[in-house]
Design a protein that fits this description.
263 residues; Porin; mainly beta
């Protein structure tokens, strides 16, 4: 009987750990309109501008909600500070709490020309502040970002490397490629593919396609809606996202008046 109870406890713990440590970590995310969904753009906020964003994400299999709080600040015309605070609600209908707070600095060191793309690098870290089941005890990493505009289409490609604070976790490598198509002055079509070898695997275990739209609601407000579909039968199987971002301070537009002299 004791052996049976011991085995039962072992497999129960194994089942919990397997699912807990397979959690879909969000990490640092771009603020609109300087990115697609998780794909960063090499462009950044102007000096003195800052962005504040909120978002909600509904994932299925496992079922949970995630709320995002974002902030970015243009240090100068080439350097931008970014922060992301993700909060998970009812993961597997049992767990809720904050993930590790993610911070990063993006520096564009090559500007775009007619024939060449703009290139930026990013260094980032996560503060070990999340609930245990959603935390890697902090992370540190770096990545490369490439962007190029051709007509109404802007394309972006990223690759990132992350090392977790917990020594038992694998190093993470992720890649993303996406584009935004300016269908109108205040409307863009978005698409990206995102892949990752996560901290919980030694091979590619996440491959997802994401599609959506971005509306310029006002001169300073951006609304982004999207859906993500899993390509590798991993969790989550799908996700639906909505985010709203404000770029401040609002730029004042000067109106030039033209006066015609009476002949």
């Amino acid at each position: 009987m004791k052996k049976f109870i011991s085995l039962l406890l072992f497999f129960s713990c194994f089942f919990f750990i397997r699912h807990a440590y397979g959690f879909d970590i969000k990490g640092l995310q771009p603020v609109a309109p300087y990115g697609v969904f998780s794909t960063f753009s090499a462009d950044s906020l102007k000096k003195g501008q800052y962005a504040v964003g909120v978002g909600v994400e509904k994932s299925g299999e496992p079922d949970f909600f995630r709320y995002l709080f974002q902030y970015a600040h243009g240090i100068n015309e080439r350097i931008e500070f970014i922060a992301t605070i993700p909060y998970v609600d009812r993961w597997n209908n049992t767990k809720s709490g904050v993930e590790d707070i993610a911070l990063g600095v993006k520096h564009r060191f090559i500007d775009e020309t007619k024939y060449t793309p703009s290139v930026a690098y990013m260094v980032n870290t996560s503060i070990p502040s999340g609930k245990e089941v959603f935390s890697t005890d902090g992370r540190a990493g770096a990545g490369l970002i490439i962007s190029k505009r051709v007509g109404p289409v802007s394309g972006h490609a990223n690759i990132f490397y992350e090392k977790a604070g917990l020594s038992k976790l694998e190093d993470e490598v992720s890649f993303a490629a996406g584009f935004d198509f300016s269908a109108a002055h205040d409307f863009k079509v978005l698409a990206e593919i995102y892949g990752r070898k996560s901290h919980y695997s030694d091979s590619l275990d996440d491959l997802e396609g994401r599609f959506g739209y971005r509306f310029m609601t006002t001169d300073y407000l951006y609304t982004t809606v999207g859906v993500g579909v899993d390509f590798k039968n991993r969790s989550p199987e799908y996700r639906i996202t909505l985010s709203i971002t404000a770029i401040l301070p609002v730029e004042k537009k000067t109106i030039k008046k033209v006066y015609e002299e009476d002949k």
